Amino acid sequence: MAEIATLARPYANALFDLAKGDSALDEWSNMLGVLVGVVEEEKVGIFLEAPESSAKEKALRLSELCGEEIDDRARKLLLALSEHDRLSLLSEVSRQFESLKAEAEKLLAVKIQSARELSESQIERVSGALRRRYGKEISLEIDLNKDLIGGAVITAGDIVIDGSIRGKLNKLRESLAGA
Q1: Domains (ranges, CATH) in the chain?
Q2: Which of 1, 75, 85, 130 is most buried, taking the most CB atoms under 10 A from its CB?
């Protein structure tokens, strides 16, 4: 995984610098989202792994699949990645770009998985606490996950706070198994 992140970093940094210079961070964010959505499709993934097609053919096909959702700049990115057989890095390039964008915008993306619906006051308390702790605006994504049984799992950047009953039961099971 570290190798993928290392390989993707120069592309993400260059893309971020380009997008920031053009005041097009949101535009690039959207185009990268489209590209990642397409490459994560099962049939597209199979095509990208197939050795019969050249990397350039793969880039051109991806470009066609995205249609007008991407512009010539994104098509050039696809060609640049394909020239170095790096199309498989698109998801990681996008992830790193979004991280750079969030840092520049002083925005922290936070995902909350909760066993039940959160009230507005609960959402505001969590958001306020995270805003104070990180000194950034908070972008919340809230998902219901009944498998948690109760509580919530909060992911903020590379920090995971597991306050779920399922997480606590797993920790208890691990401590009993080790005893």
Answers
A1: 2-102 (1.10.520.20), 107-178 (no CATH)
A2: 130
